[in-house]
Amino acid sequence: IFGGRGLPNGSVQAALQILPELRLSWIDQILSRNLLKTTTTKNLQSQDLFVCFIKEFLKTFLNNFFFKAMFQTMKRMDFLNSLFSLLGEVFLKDVSCYFSLLEDGQPRDKLEFAFRLYDRDGNGVLDSSVGGLSLKYNLLPIPLRRSEMLVFDKVFSILTTPYMMTAIDADSSGTVSLQEWVEGGMNNVPLLVLLGLKMTQRDGQHLWRMKHFNKPVYCNVCQNMLLGLRKQGLCCTCCKYTVHGRCANKNPAPCSRTYVMSKKETGIAAHDWVSGNCDSGKCDRCQKKIKSLHGLTGKRCVWCHSMRHDECATQEPFECDCGPFRDHILPPWAIYPVIKVMQIQINPIADTHPLLVFVNPKSGGKQGERLCFFRDLPDYRILVCGGDGTVGWILDAIDKANLPMRPPVAVLPLGTGNDLARCLRWGGGYDGMDLGRILKDIEGSSVVPMDRWSIQVTLEDSQERGDPVPYEIINNYFSIGVDASIAHRFHTMREKHPQKFNSRMKNKLWYFEFATSETISASCKKLKECLTIECCGTQLDLSNLSLEGIAVLNIPSMHGGSNLWGEAKKSDRAEQDLPEVIIDPEVLKVSPQDMSDKRVELVGLEGAIEMGQIYTGLKSAVRLAKTSQITIRTKKPLPMQIDGEPWMQPPCTIHITHKNQASMLMGPQVKSGFFNLK
Q1: Where are the domains of the chain?
Q2: Which of 111, 466, 472, 544 could form a disulfide linkage to 650, CB 3.0–4.6 angstroms apart?
């Protein structure tokens, strides 16, 4: 599996341990396609047959989940030895792959892997014979392309810091053994940061990252300037405490506290000052400029971001107001430990709405734990930084946490389509806008309920195996037919050739190509003959329609901004309770789309060309129904998708019912015009 050079020792045994977790359909497909069709297979022994099977399995269905599980089940030493001694060399893509797999692993594992990467002669020490490391700890030229150097920027940066290697060389022998490397590395902050390893989580622990500074900056430990052309030092993400790499291990001042030690200290709002790097800032007390004196100058408060001269920091006012973002902050003087029950208690600040921010699923599976920490807070909000899939991930976590109050959720759109963010006025994608402005928009946002729908798929033939259904809940939309076919072909090609989909422009061109070929082939033509639709027991008549796709809509945006339902005509009828199902075309014309009315809209698509017309706003899809329940029965395999995740589904029965409502934050309406009119 390493560049097609064969299977490493120990991987077969590891695969045996996790085979019960693998999907039987995958195994069946491999056996039928890759093994049983060959005549040479009959002459293989059982062990050879299994090895052949594993090779074909990995070749066909290799993915991060399987690879990570296989790696974690292996013995580390056997695995590393087999990797580095297989042919006496390691290819760049292998190293890149394994560093990505080790991202969430234990620090010892990653340090061990890095050691064997540098120990090219296999003598068990890092010495002058190592290609990238000499006795003087100098970096020798390495024949790598610029793109490859960027991949290993973090790793090779380690070898450019002599003080780091000297610190690890405990016996000053000029060589570094594996034990010295691991034990020294576990306590070496710059090395852990460069390798992307997490340090021990405790109150007062800095969250370090390498940083490049564009102006003179001084170390908070030795008070000397940080010099260099690239990343000159380490900076704490939380408190902006800045140090040289060599000073990070010299017991620097702790990071800003996250809670007070007793209930008596709650409510005492005190500044948390960090010295230095306030050049050109304005003193919050005397209103004079803080001038640089070629050293640490002035103080900055971590919470309110105010700056003061050193002498002004000791004068009144001493109380911290948390600055312009007070509404979003849960300060340390609102949190205190309860010793008897061994947990942290929150004493909420009046008139605030603390903001809990989730960046992406890779931050770990602790979202439920973090939500439970906030469960007793009466008024807090959540900001999800990601795409629609990340939003769905958080909404599922809120469901599972069984919170007494469902917190409202805002979205910072970092995905591709961002349909939900568009509907909630958070935009189609983050374009580098000032985050302070986004926080102000969240402060002025309003809470709106959003329906969520359960989808249950039952196979007509229980023995038939198809792709797994990606989600059990619909947040945005569900579709069958032409659009799902294009999405499925796009998804399949991207999985097979990811290098062809490395930019937005390429993605759009590929999507256009698939849409064009779908227009010609019309693979979903005469869709009405392949399925039946019931809305609350009423069967829809599709006989007079020529459709290639249908879509069930929960929000007024699909495919990155297409409004399939369109704008509703104004109705003279007074507001009244919606019936369970509406199929009358005249009534549907004046029925607006609403994400909180416990109804979904059902529309028909006539083809790929029509989808382009809908995207440009030239027309809308065919309105079929507005209903609270849908049952769809399919008669042949059809492409489907839920919230942008496509799959191929064998004949089945699909039930869509209302699940619950999520609280979402609607962004403030954008002001426009000469006089800021809305």
Answers
A1: 11-194, 353-444, 453-568+579-662
A2: 466
